[in-house]
Amino acid sequence: MNGDGLTDLVVNESSSEAVRVLQQDATHRFSPLSGSVMGLERATQIGVADCDGDGKKDLVRLLAGGVIEVLRGDGAGGFTRLASDRFSLPGDASNFTLADLDRDERMDIVALGTGSASLYILRNRSRRGASLFELLPTIAAGPSGSQPIALSVADFDADGLPDIAVARAGDSRIVLFNNRSF
Questions:
Q1: What is the DSSP letter of 138?
Q2: CA–CA separation, 153 and 179 (whole Å)
Q3: What's the pLDDT tens digit per position in 101-144?
Q4: For 65-108, what is each residue's pLDDT tens digit?
Q5: Do 108 and 97 form a contact (C-beta atoms < 8 A)?
Q6: Where are the beta strands (DSSP E) in 50-177?
Q7: CA 121, 165, 180: angle at the middle one, nearest 5?
Q8: Angle CA(36)–CA(67)–CA(174) in degrees, nearest 5?
Q9: Strand 38-39 to 30-32 pairing
Q10: φ and ψ at 105, to 5 degrees?
Q11: How far apart are CA 38 and CA 18, in angstroms?
């Protein structure tokens, strides 16, 4: 997160509604990075990826009401919050993952809808320094009441494209969505 070549941690502190960057030192110990604590609205999940192609890690946050927020990384462990970097999903979401679904070297966002058994894909159309995500048509992740609870992205069918797997609690099934370049 701070460009020193060591893996750092980004922690979503739900009790204080803050995000903290913990930097790793050469002895593999972690300590808070100065100035990295940000008071933000509560996020249910966070992820880290370079979303805008500037070579700096950005912070992706899932907020209540199905809002995805991208905080732009400065390369030193800090983040900038811009109103234009918030994207609304058609419904609330329980979790998300970051994956390059269309192999364009930009991380897309795959979110799992709550209650609606929906799969939302935000295709990354960002360019250097500007976040832009295109919401693709909603995919039904199962019948009503199937309660999708988890998702994973990997090349499950060995065709070179990442696929999406959704675990459902309501009918105890895992459903695979083969990537046809969504």
A1: P
A2: 10
A3: 999 999 999 999 987 789 999 999 988 877 789 999 999 988 87
A4: 999 999 988 888 888 887 788 999 998 999 999 999 999 999 99
A5: no
A6: 58-63, 67-73, 79-80, 86-88, 93-99, 108-113, 118-124, 133-135, 139-140, 148-154, 163-168, 173-177
A7: 60
A8: 105
A9: unpaired
A10: 70, 20
A11: 5
Cβ contact 30:95 at 8 Å: no
What are the C-alpha distances in Å from 16 to residues 41, 73, 86, 117? 9, 21, 21, 30
Question: In this structure, are residues 111 and 93 in contact, taking their beta carbons and an 8 Å threshold?
Answer: yes
Give the C-alpha separation, 96 to 2, whole Å.
Answer: 24
Query: What phi, psi does 84 have (nearest 5°)?
Result: -70, -10
Query: Which pTM was predicted?
Result: 0.89
Those residues with Cβ within 8 angstroms of residue 155's Cβ, 6 or more apart along the chain or in another chain? 161, 162, 163
